[in-house]
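hey
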């Protein structure tokens, strides 16, 4: 799939001069005919290659449905730029063509002033719907749901249900799954449309219900909802309130976007990059990210880690006398602290991933800490044996004893930091991925340096 996308991207670059020539010569009819046969993601690739003003021209020429599909594929920065070039009537046409969930996502990413302008352009009913979706907590599944689904009553006949689908299914986001409700809109079941089609027309809908369905509350975090999708292999998921009234549905395309966004967010945090204030475009569209944004995203953690590294220097200065007497100790310091940091990063990676997948919970921290102590002790012995040879070569038996002891203890300490840190962040309602590799290695540097030089002082005094 990646190879096909890469291949077509090359085709887009090849056709770019022809597209620009058609725009320059104002051959609108030809341009419309050509681009109307393209898929929305491919036109999005073209938009990344041409002048923004030309993008506006193309967007105006495209059929309304295709234009809205293209617009929803664009990143938030480009969407904002295009909206500033379009007239209110053109903006209204595009916004109304967007699915409610895509519209909500657009509104929450735009500046407040622009969002107010767009909501004011909508008809009263659409405006009310948009404000209702925006009223759910940020990153909740309620903001991703769409009210465009097909619901049928449990007491209808199969024929009545099919007639209802023919009448209202055209505007639904999907009709693969049908949602069965009572007169008060309580969700009773969900069934695949195949079951309805294959049933006898004079039977009731209730006769083909199995009462086995999965739903989520509108206020559930979108990352937790993604786990529900994954666990039950769903393509659509009904969203309800606390009294199980059906409010809307979430489809798999939105969940794929959530998973991609969450993975990208975790990746930035694990690399000690602060992307919250500048947006995830920092990493997904790095070629187009302004210089200032890159600096803002990277400087915060680098500065904090710099302060922590100064502490390491202070520890070394505190052991000047032992270092002056045994200068060879300095040659082992990078190996000891780096190995401890690497061990900590390994354990943190395993814990963070397990927490993300839900295979490990907060209550498991004591068991995992004890287990990691045994694992790290074993690893430390092997690492100690490895470094003991250099202890003999560079120093003597006493130096070897110091570096072996320090290696074992540092690997254990580094590994335990890697296990406990994600749980600490989780306890304080922070993303466990914030326990990043740079943070762990820096802590391992500080603690490992102190332990190593303290051991040297005690054993060589």
């Amino acid at each position: 799939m990646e190879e096909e996308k890469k291949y077509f991207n090359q085709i887009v670059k090849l056709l770019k001069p022809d597209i620009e020539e058609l725009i320059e010569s104002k051959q609108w009819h030809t341009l419309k005919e050509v681009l109307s046969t393209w898929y929305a993601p491919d036109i999005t690739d073209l938009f990344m290659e041409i002048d923004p003003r030309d993008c506006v021209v193309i967007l105006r020429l495209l059929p309304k449905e295709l234009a809205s599909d293209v617009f929803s594929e664009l990143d938030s920065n480009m969407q904002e730029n295009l909206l500033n070039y379009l007239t209110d009537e053109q903006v209204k046409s595009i916004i109304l063509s967007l699915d409610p969930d895509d519209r909500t996502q657009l509104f929450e990413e735009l500046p407040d002033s622009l969002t107010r302008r767009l909501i004011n352009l909508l008809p009263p009913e659409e405006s009310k719907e948009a404000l209702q979706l925006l009223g759910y907590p940020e990153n909740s599944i309620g903001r991703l749901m769409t009210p465009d689904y097909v619901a049928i009553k449990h007491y209808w006949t199969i024929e009545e249900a099919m007639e209802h689908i023919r009448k209202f299914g055209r505007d639904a986001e999907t009709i693969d799954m049908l949602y069965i409700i009572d007169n008060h809109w309580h969700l009773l079941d969900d069934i695949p449309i195949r079951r309805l089609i294959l049933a006898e027309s004079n039977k009731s809908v209730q006769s083909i219900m199995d009462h086995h369905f999965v739903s989520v509350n509108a206020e559930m975090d979108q990352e937790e909802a993604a786990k529900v999708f994954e666990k039950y292999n769903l393509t659509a998921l009904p969203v309800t309130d606390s009294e199980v009234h059906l409010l809307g549905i979430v489809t798999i395309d939105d969940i794929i976007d959530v998973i991609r966004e969450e993975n990208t967010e975790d990746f930035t945090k694990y690399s000690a990059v602060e992307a919250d204030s500048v947006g995830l475009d920092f990493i997904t569209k790095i070629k187009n990210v302004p210089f200032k944004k890159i600096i803002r995203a990277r400087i915060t953690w680098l500065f904090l880690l710099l302060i922590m590294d100064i502490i390491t220097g202070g520890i070394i200065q505190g052991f000047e006398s032992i270092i002056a007497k045994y200068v060879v100790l300095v040659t082992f310091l990078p190996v000891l602290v780096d190995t401890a940091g690497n061990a900590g990063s390994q354990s943190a990676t395993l814990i963070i991933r397990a927490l993300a997948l839900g295979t490990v919970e907060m209550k498991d921290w004591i068991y995992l800490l004890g287990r990691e102590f045994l694992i790290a002790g074993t690893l430390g012995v092997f690492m100690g044996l490895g470094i003991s040879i250099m202890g003999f070569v560079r120093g003597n038996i006493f130096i070897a004893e110091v570096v072996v002891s320090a290696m074992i203890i540092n690997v254990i300490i580094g590994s335990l930091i890697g296990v406990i840190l994600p749980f600490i962040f989780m306890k304080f309602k922070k993303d466990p991925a914030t326990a990043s590799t740079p943070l762990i290695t820096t802590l391992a540097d500080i603690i490992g340096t102190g332990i190593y030089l303290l051991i040297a002082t005690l054993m060589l005094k």
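Residues 2-135 form a domain with the MgtE N-terminal fold fold (CATH 1.25.60.10). The chain has a mean pLDDT of 84.
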